[in-house]
Amino acid sequence: MLQTSRSLGHLAALAALAVLLLTANAFAYDDEKPHGFWHAEPGNIDYYVLVLGWSPTYCLHEGDARNDMQCDSEQSHDFVLHGLWPQYAKGWPEDCYKGERPWVPSAVIDEMRALMPSKELIIHEYRTHGTCTGLAPGAFYDVVRKAYDQVTIPAAFDDPKTQRFMSPENIESAFIAANDWLEPDMIAVTCRRGNLFDVRLCFSDALRPQACGANINQKRLCPLRRITVTKPQD
Fold first, then answer.
1. Beta bridge partners of 187
2. Cβ neighbours of residue 7 under 8 Å, at least 6 residues apart?
3. What is the pLDDT of residues 48-57, one digit of tens each?
4. Are 53 and 84 in contact (CB under 8 A)?
5. Which of 146, 120, 115 is nearest to 133 (CA)?
6. pTM, rounded to two decimals
7. 47-229 maps to CATH 3.50.50.60
8. Residue 162: CB partners within 8 Å, gap ≥ 6?
9. For the chain, which residues make up each domain, given as ranges?
10. What's the CA gap between 210 and 185, in Å, rounded?
């Protein structure tokens, strides 16, 4: 009888330990998951990444097929504000809401249309990334604008009708030359199918420039020596 009680007590202890480990792992980094973290606490972040998308590449691979107004030949977009993404030192949160999808007021969308090319993008960016800041839509986009206003787009990218071939380092150097606060470890370039896709710049949660974390690794995001700075399709 005593042996049975000991066995039952041992099993109970193992069960409690298993529950504890499962609970801990629910908030731990998981290399098997594409998002790094799945159970994120809104507002608990380490830094931000400001993402500037190269519009001609987006239009070449996706936007033209969707008849996206961003790709209207009369618009001639170059770099556009894609979003501000909360990050962890390793991994990042996404979709930090439960139940119904968050609603972004029309007034907030209208205020952002001058900086972001479509209503759908504005809504998507808040649902996917903004919800992880713990901020309401209006407050989140205030933060986005403050980060974006700190960045000067290099003049060399003002004419997207001219196609060029550049290394990621050349593109980064152009941004560093145009922004005296920017250091090489605060910026990375991504590419898609050999074309410039976006530029990412890192800020602290107080919107001060800071070095990027492990997620923003240049060799992983674009390991090519030379990429095409695509021009819009005629």
1. 201
2. none
3. 999 999 988 8
4. no
5. 146
6. 0.80
7. no
8. 231
9. 1-30, 47-229
10. 8
